[in-house]
Amino acid sequence: MAFKALVLEQEAGKVTAAVRSLEPENLPEGDVLVSVMYSSLNYKDALAVTGRGKIIRGAYPFVPGIDLAGEVVASESELWRVGDLVIGTGWGLGENTWGGFSRMARVRGEWLVPLPEGLTPKEAMVAGTAGFTAMLSAMALEHEDATPGRGEVVVTGATGGVGSFAVTILARRGFSVAASTGKTHARAYLEALGARRLLPREDLGQGPRRPLDTARWAAAVDTVGGATLAALLSRTGRHGSVAACGLAGGHELHTTVFPFILRGVNLLGIDSNTCPMPRRLEAWARIAAEVPKEAFARMTHRVIPLAEVPAASAALLDGQALGRIVVDVRA
Ligand SMILES: NC(=O)c1ccc[n+]([C@@H]2O[C@H](COP(=O)([O-])OP(=O)(O)OC[C@H]3O[C@@H](n4cnc5c(N)ncnc54)[C@H](OP(=O)(O)O)[C@@H]3O)[C@@H](O)[C@H]2O)c1
Fold first, then answer.
1. Does the predicted model carry a pTM greater than 0.90?
2. Which domains does the chain have, with CATH numbers?
3. Residue 307: its H or E element
4. What is the pLDDT of residues 206-253, one digit of tens each?
5. Is the CB of 102 under 6 A from ligand 1?
6. Does the CB atom of residue 161 touch ligand 1 within 6 A?
7. Which of these, 121, 278, 301, 317, is most buried using a 10 Å CB contact count?
């Protein structure tokens, strides 16, 4: 039966996006067919849809969307049965293989995780790759013994998808959270998520003032990269940790070894895409257990149909979103 999907085409290097009608036989190979309920718009999706970043590694025409939540409607995988509710993120979904901006998706069973108890498919996509990455970052900090008693933790790009979830999760765990943001008008939003104070984006965005600056933080979740990450490293305290998960401000990193060899600072890399399954399952279970219901609602900036994804992508890259954009693929 025909279904709707957002299809990207590329001509003379220019990417265009339009909602089209597809047939199941158009879908790529895979052993599980998912009736998608919700997807979400991530930074990576916005780059793919607008063509502003080289995200798509499969051939065009291509269906993007790095996240999906839905119900299994056919399965040749021993892992899944018809009727199972599942989440798909990472493993190249929406990058190498067709993704979640589609009413139907065919994927490999081993890429999926069960929808954890206590989470609705919509809430799973309020979180999506962004919430999952924030949880992986918080888990990585915890693994390096970051505890509320050791001092303040800073989250950069705090009003973004990853940032909003990181503020929420860390505040719920009792950390005093400083939210670094370019949106001074977002004070009420960030404080409602649990931020104790706001830092203007430029404070870190100008880069390190000296290779080793006064220690200010015990830990950090950085979604911005570039000069911001270098500044964070220079101001993180003894044996503190910085979870680096993003590049919203730049992909380069110019630093010195001083924070590492004189303060024992840990730079922790976070890659949600290839996260191993046991950690993946733990992260989703902890999202369900730790993120309050009202926080999902608060972090939902908008719920949009497939047709609005292109315009919302441009707005996201212009930094206009506050929290997360959920895509209702059935609308
Ligand atoms: N490692 C992984 O597995 C993984 C997974 C998901 C996402 N990511 C990365 O994490 C980053 C955030 O993703 P997201 O989905 O949360 O994106 P998002 O919702 O667009 O949030 C990005 C936030 O970064 C800040 N920002 C935007 N442009 C900036 C600039 N030029 N300089 C400094 N700050 C800027 C803004 O927050 P404020 O206005 O509050 O400052 C913005 O809301 C992206 O780079 C994404 O690729 C990585």
1. yes
2. 3-115+296-328 (3.90.180.10), 130-269 (3.40.50.720)
3. none
4. 999 999 999 999 999 999 999 999 999 999 999 999 999 999 999 999
5. no
6. yes
7. 301
